[in-house]
Amino acid sequence: MNDPVILKKPAARIDLAGCYAYIGARNPDAARRFRLAAEATFAALACSPGIGAPYEVANPRLQGFEVPRSDGSGIT
What does pTM read for this prediction? Predict the structure, then answer.
């Protein structure tokens, strides 16, 4: 089975780079762990679409987002 393609919008890429730089300036090892954890999370989400629960929001730009379930499955 092929790995899913993970597309990040430019704003997401900028946010991730900013977080990585901020953390890295203080703790390079923590920045590396952050990057690896983020990539692992993206991969898990790409392999399991729909694992979240619907979440109602007032902002129409955020409609359709799902939040992680906290059902004890270990997936958060």
Answer: 0.63
